[in-house]
Amino acid sequence: MPQCGAAARSYEELMGIRLIVGLGNPGKEYERTRHNAGFWLVERFAAQEHVVLRKDTRYQALVGRHEASGAWLVLPQSFMNASGRAVQMLAGFFKIPAAEILVVHDELDFAPGAARIKQGGGIAGHNGLKDISQRLGTHDYWRLRLGIGHPGDKDAVADYVLHKPAAEDREAIDGAIGRAIEVLPLCISGDLQGAMQKLHTQDKPAAPRPAPEPARAPAPPKPKAPAKEPARAEAAAKAAEKAPEKAPQQETPKQGGVKSLLKSLLSGPSRKK
């Protein structure tokens, strides 16, 4: 018989996320670098939820507990390429399977301002993920990826992640962290699908604005067409063409002209035969 409601959800979804790990490097010189984006999110969530992160030498990490849910917050302090030690020890001690672990890290393949959640997948050369996967023996933990952008040259990546982002990029990353923190309660409660849907919908990039067209010189004025004759004049012209031609009028003789002289001579006394 098919299950419905909460009973139909998997064991992992019912338990939710019990261990949230932020990746980064310890020390003042690294705290503002791109590689510490995972630290930024967990520190901000801890401050918002009034969770105190204390140094625990057993795990070589800063550790705190989210009392409302019982989830653990962890910031490994053994540098990025040894992040897996704290994760392995905490997960082993509290019997937390990989499917209940969320690792927050910087992501070169996303632009600043992007945030995505996924489970499993490759490590894309990230040393923190590489160490965690090796120590847990699986890739099947959850990841919350915060975009930091790519330098464009793979040989420049190591230097790029260890430098501070530009002010504009940091603002975009902080915005993504804020949106991601909003869905963490869903992750902790076990609704990972709901968290992904909400975060990824909010995270859709705005459509690029069309570039303004370059200014063009004004076009020369078009020559004016000759004015058309009024309809009456055109009708009159057509009527004139159809009318019969009139006989030419005789010219009126001008006074003092040759014709006047001849007329006066002819009208004189008649000659005798």
Description:
The chain is of the alpha/beta class and 273 residues long. It has a domain at 15-202: Peptidyl-tRNA hydrolase (Rossmann fold), CATH 3.40.50. Helices cover 36% and strands 14% of the residues. The protein contains nine helices and seven strands; from the N terminus they run αβαβββαββαβααααα. It has helices at 11-15, 37-48, 84-93, 127-136, 157-161, 167-189, 192-202, 231-242, 258-266, and strands at 19-22, 54-56, 61-66, 71-76, 101-107, 115-119, 142-147. A seven-stranded mixed sheet has the order 2-3-4-1-5-7-6, with helices on both faces. Strand 3 (61-66) and strand 4 form a beta hairpin. Helix 3 runs parallel beside helix 4. It is elongated. The N and C termini lie far apart (156 Å). The model is unreliable at 1-13 and 206-211 (pLDDT under 50).
Task: Outline the secondary-structure elements.
Elements: H1 11-15, E1 19-22, H2 37-48, E2 54-56, E3 61-66, E4 71-76, H3 84-93, E5 101-107, E6 115-119, H4 127-136, E7 142-147, H5 157-161, H6 167-189, H7 192-202, H8 231-242, H9 258-266
Parallel strand pairs: 1-4, 1-5, 5-7
Antiparallel strand pairs: 2-3, 3-4, 6-7
Give me the side-by-side strand order of the main sheet: 2-3-4-1-5-7-6
CATH class of the domain at 15-202: Alpha Beta
SSE string, helices as H and strands as E: HEHEEEHEEHEHHHHH
What is the fourth-level CATH superfamily of the domain at 15-202? Peptidyl-tRNA hydrolase
Helix content: 25-40%
Q: Biggest β-sheet, characterized?
A: 7 strands, mixed
Assign the CATH architecture of the domain at 15-202. 3-Layer(aba) Sandwich
Number of helices: 9
Overall pLDDT metric: 82
Radius of gyration: 46 Å
In terms of structural class, how would the helical and strand content be classed?
Answer: alpha/beta
pLDDT < 50 runs, ≥5 residues: 1-13, 206-211
How many strand segments? 7
Q: What portion of residues belong to β-strands?
A: 5-15%
Would you tell me which CATH topology of the domain at 15-202 applies?
Rossmann fold
Distance between the termini: 156 Å
Overall geometry comes to elongated
